[in-house]
């Protein structure tokens, strides 16, 4: 047998840009279930975790917390130093005044008769000038208490660091973390080169946020490759014009750091997609597709999708003006819709992203009103049989062979009403809007990789 002449990799793709979303620290890179098939070919299973897996390590979190404490202590010490320096200057400036008062008190003590009304008033004025020293001394007391607290915190930090050092032994944890991050980067780079595969499973749902109304859509850029980390949210399914743009996934989770785009034309449905910095959507009460460029805040292209139904003529089972569903995968930009000549069956068209011209079209034969939602992965359209609880991925149409099959891929519809479900080929996850919740699913793809020996 030629070792690795052909490898079958079952790749659990889970590359979500938000570290708090992963439930289990055991999801590390693994290669297991090594075996041979009937032809003697090697079979392996690879499970790929999220990037920055080490950030989920309890020791890593503990070290970060310690670093934050050290930073806080440093800042407190700087404040104390500045305040002490300022107060010390004040004390030095009043030193001569204190000596004068001390001298006059000694004179009055030794010769009480020398303390006439004028001398008494002069002494009283000098003492009055010393009164501002009292709050300074009180501040010194408070600072002394703070120094005691800081000393106790430093002692506790030292004990924790010693415990971590004993647990880690001779290894440099930071060096190990960097090596693992480098390995993850190389593995994810390899993962992106693996090519396409067949969907075989969907993970449990990962709720990112609860926001907006019952219907809506949210997404990141689907272009490969891309370093764009922005997140967009579009609440509602008809006549909406407001698009919220968040800087990162973390900002989206917290509902902060966003800007607003006001579209020149309202949208219909929830089948929008962001591809290479532009939003593609269906114009309200029409079968016109619009390409809106976020950076220039302008419409670049408008084109009618010839014959496509609109305004709830051929929606998904949940309605919501979902006649036209735009999506993207590893092969580019797609439109899923139906027409009267197609008798309400789902039609797939591959679009040219610049002009929105239809490049090729397929008739799947599957009735669109029987579909809950659909999404494309590697040129294959996957259709769910319902938008409600108990839904599963029921039908797959392969554009590369113009063939179809019925599938049985379950997934957990946690909030019981999905109004948007789209695949992101860059992150290799499913984005869904489920009854006012923004939810992600990891996907499992079965891939055949051939080496040069084949």
TrEMBL record:
S-S pairs: 196-378
GO biological process, one term: signal transduction
Domain of life from the UniProt record: Eukaryota
Keyword check for Transmembrane helix: no
Pfam families reported in the protein's UniProt record: Noelin-1, OLF
Keywords for the protein's UniProt record, in alphabetical order: Coiled coil, Disulfide bond, Glycoprotein, Secreted, Signal, Synapse
First and last residue of the signal peptide: 1-20
SMART domains given in the database record: OLF
Domain called Olfactomedin-like: residue spans: 195-447
Gene Ontology cellular component annotations, sorted alphabetically: extracellular space; synapse
UniProt KW Signal keyword: yes
Main location: secreted
Cell compartments where the protein resides: Secreted; Synapse
PANTHER family the UniProt entry points to: NOELIN-2 (PTHR23192:SF27), OLFACTOMEDIN-RELATED (PTHR23192)
Protein name (record): Olfactomedin-like domain-containing protein
């Amino acid at each position: 047998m030629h070792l690795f002449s052909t490898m079958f990799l079952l790749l659990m793709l889970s590359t979500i840009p938000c570290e708090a979303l992963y439930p289990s620290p055991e999801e590390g890179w693994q290669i297991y279930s090594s075996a041979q098939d009937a032809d003697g070919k090697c079979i392996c299973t690879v499970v790929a975790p999220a990037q920055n897996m080490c950030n989920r390590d309890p020791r890593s979190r503990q070290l970060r917390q310690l670093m934050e404490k050290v930073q806080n202590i440093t800042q407190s010490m700087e404040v104390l130093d500045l305040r002490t320096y300022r107060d010390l200057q004040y004390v030095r400036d009043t030193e001569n005044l204190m000596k004068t008062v001390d001298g006059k008190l000694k004179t009055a003590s030794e010769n009480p008769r020398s303390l006439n009304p004028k001398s008494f008033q002069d002494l009283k004025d000098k003492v009055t000038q010393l009164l501002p020293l009292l709050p300074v001394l009180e501040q010194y007391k408070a600072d002394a208490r703070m120094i005691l607290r800081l000393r106790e915190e430093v002692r506790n930090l030292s004990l924790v660091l010693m415990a971590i050092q004993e647990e880690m032994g001779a290894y440099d944890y930071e060096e190990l973390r960097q090596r693992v991050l480098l390995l993850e980067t190389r593995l994810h780079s390899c993962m992106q080169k693996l090519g396409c595969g067949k969907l075989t499973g969907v993970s449990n749902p990962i709720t990112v946020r609860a926001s907006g109304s019952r219907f809506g859509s949210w997404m990141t850029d689907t272009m490969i490759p891309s370093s764009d980390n922005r997140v967009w949210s579009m609440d509602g399914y008809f006549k909406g014009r407001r698009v919220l743009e968040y800087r990162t996934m973390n900002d989206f989770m917290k509902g902060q750091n966003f800007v607003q785009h006001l579209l020149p034309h309202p949208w219909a449905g929830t089948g929008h997609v962001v591809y290479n910095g532009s939003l593609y959507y269906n114009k309200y009460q029409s079968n016109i597709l619009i390409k809106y460029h976020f950076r220039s805040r302008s419409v670049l292209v408008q084109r009618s999708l010839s014959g496509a139904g609109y305004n709830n003529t051929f929606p998904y089972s949940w309605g919501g003006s979902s006649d036209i569903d735009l999506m993207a995968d590893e092969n580019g930009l797609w439109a899923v819709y139906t027409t009267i000549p197609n008798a309400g069956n789902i039609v797939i068209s591959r679009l040219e992203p610049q002009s929105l011209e239809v490049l090729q079209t397929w008739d799947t034969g599957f009735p669109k009103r029987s579909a809950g939602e659909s999404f494309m992965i590697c040129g294959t359209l996957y259709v769910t049989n319902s938008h409600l609880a108990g839904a599963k991925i029921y039908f797959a149409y392969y554009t590369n062979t113009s063939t179809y099959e019925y599938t049985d891929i379950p997934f957990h519809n946690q909030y019981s009403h999905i109004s948007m479900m789209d695949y992101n080929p860059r992150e290799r996850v499913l984005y869904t809007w489920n009854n006012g919740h923004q939810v992600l699913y990891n996907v499992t793809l079965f891939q055949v990789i051939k080496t040069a020996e084949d």
